[in-house]
């Protein structure tokens, strides 16, 4: 086994927000906090033009499965305390072999 790629995707609902500027003021500090605190890449995937929801994706990679799993759990915890409502979330860890084949494990 060469390593593991972990992904976390969540949908955040912000029904009380009335503008894109207001939503960005909520979302940006959360994404910046994740990038500063954990070795992850964060992307705003969908809902960029909607003021009341957004989909965020987070990815990390390591040679230690437990570390990837723990990191994704901490990311989830941050998202749940972000001030936005997490309505959907999923995470998965994909094993990377030297020969190029991979195995996927959903959580």
Automatic annotation (TrEMBL):
InterPro entries found in the cross-reference section: DUF503, TT1725-like_sf
Region (Disordered) residue spans: 84-107
PANTHER family in the record: DUF503 DOMAIN-CONTAINING PROTEIN, HYPOTHETICAL CYTOSOLIC PROTEIN
Name used for this protein in its record: DUF503 domain-containing protein
